[in-house]
Amino acid sequence: MNDASNHHTHTGRDSFGSSFGILVALAGSAVGLGNLWRFPYLVGENGGAAFILIYLAFVFLIGMPIMLSEFVVGRRSQSSARGAYQKLAPDGKWGFAGSLAIVCCILILSFYSVVGGWGIEYLFKAFRFDFTKGDQAALSSMFSTFASSSWQPLICHTLFLLASGIIVILGVKNGIERFSKVMMPVLFVIMIGIAIRSLTLPGAREGIEYLFKPDWSAVTADTFLDALGQAFFSLSLGSGMVITYGSYVSRKENIVSLSAKTAIADTLFAMIAGCAIMPAVFAFGISPGEGPGLVFITLPHIFSQLPFGGVIAILFFVALLLAALTSSISLLEVIVAFSIEEFKMKRRTAVMLTLVVLWVLGCLCSLSQGVLSDWKFFGKTVFDLFDFVSANVLMLAGGLLVVIFAGWKLGRKIIHDELSNSGALKIPVWFVDTLSFLIRFLAPVAIIVIAVFQWI
Ligand code: PHE
Predict the structure, then answer these.
(1) 135 — phi, psi (to 5°)?
(2) CA of 142 to the centre of ligand 1 (A)
(3) Would you tell me how many other CB atoms lie within 10 Å of the CB of residue 167?
(4) How many domains are there within the chain?
(5) Nearest-angstrom CA–CA distance, 38 and 35
(6) What is the residue range of 130's domain?
(7) Dihedral angle of Cα 164, 169, 174, 175, to the nearest 10 degrees
(8) CATH code of 25's domain
(9) The whole model's pTM is what?
(10) Ligand 1 environment, Cβ below 6 A
(11) pLDDT at 130 over 60
(12) What is the pLDDT of residues 368-412, one digit of tens each?
């Protein structure tokens, strides 16, 4: 029965089953390592609350319009990222914008699954109460020894990819949606619990101030680029994710409210993660600017000193893994949906082939932390290069292209038609006007200005 309903059209397109399912799948994609691993260390490196405020402004003024543009393109075309552009603009050469999104997802997932793999290892370590044995220096060398070794991280990376692959093979409704429906609520409950523990530590106050009292002197041009890159990364924008998931959404759903709820859930989750991490960091007198090692070194150090820290460590790494998985399946789905559609592959074949490519690239990322650390491109290791190129270049380019496409090629009428479900929903005129302005002018100009600033 399920199989039949999954393949109800001749193209065999799968789709989501319920509004709640769409929301948790979208929020599942958005909430991920970006919130738990990237956001806290970027906040730490960029001086706290000022960065957060710039980030918030970007999420709502630039992120939301891009998300809606992607939604319009995806739902209207009912196609994967590349097909969507080609279907809506058959005359043009817009297919490359879709191809760019596929490349972007491949690069992201390559290093994402390495970090996801670190999460698996750290969950095991948490179960073995490994963190209780060391001080900060010991934990720091534990992390670098592990991440730079050749075999262990590769095994974990493989496991993480396989787990994502299994869910995606099951399909959109039976895999992605079903998994997200269970995991997202669990994830929220765990993180709120940890945030409460952290906020009630003696000395937590300084961490709260750090998160909410801006220090503008720490802001530089780079802060803006980091904040925009993070808004894109965290909302999964410019990667074709919203186009792809949007193509599985029925014409009856309200895409404005879905986008707003997704952006709010993601932002809320980033703030909860910040409240779980920063107060504890300050309570233990640790510097927040530790960089990417923050959750793998600093947090275990804190767990080792907290009462019941062993249990909290387990919960934290369970949360990290769940968050990572609900995002990695969305990245994988973008590539798989493209392969199914473009090369007429079976879902299973598409998943397996994609995993092989990702596995190889991921191995390079992982080894670039150790034996391949001398392989530098533009002064960056493979890992850092993939992160930088995807978040700070390809996602921005993808976002720029999608707003130009939606705003100028499709135009206001089609946008209005999609937002209002062809008139079934009453969307106020001022809203469409404001949104068109953001899509046509503000978002593209902001992206270009910020991107140009990084080169000068
Ligand atoms: N938004 C995810 C995170 O924050 C990462 C992601 C990017 C997922 C692009 C899908 C597409 O971890």
Answers:
(1) -95, -175
(2) 27
(3) 22
(4) 1
(5) 6
(6) 2-455
(7) 10
(8) 1.10.4160
(9) 0.93
(10) 29-30, 32-35, 108, 233-234, 236, 239, 241, 327, 330-331
(11) yes
(12) 999 898 898 988 999 999 998 998 899 999 999 999 999 999 999
- The rounded distance, in Å, linking the Cα atoms of 398 and 240 is 8
Q: Atom 7 in ligand 1: which residue has the minimum CA distance?
A: 236
Helices (H) and strands (E) in the chain, counts: 23, 0
Closest residue by CA, ligand 1 atom 6: 236
How far, in Å, from the CA of 155 to the mean position of ligand 1?
22
Q: What are phi and psi of 149, to 5 degrees?
A: -75, 165
Report the distance separating Cα 411 and Cα 406, nearest Å: 6
pLDDT reported for residue 3: 42
**Any idea what DSSP says for residue 150?**
S
Q: Is the pLDDT of residue 5 over 70?
A: no
Q: Please provide the DSSP assignment of 195-259 as one string.
A: HHHHHTSTTTHHHHHHHHS--GGG--HHHHHHHHHHHHHHTTTTSSHHHHHHTTS-TTS-HHHHH
Ligand 1 centroid, distance to 43 Cα (angstroms) = 17
Q: From 333, 326, 335, select the one nearest 98 (Cα to Cα).
A: 335
Taking the C-alpha atoms of residue 73 and residue 11, their distance in angstroms, rounded to an integer, is: 19
Residue 112 Cα to ligand 1 middle (Å) = 9
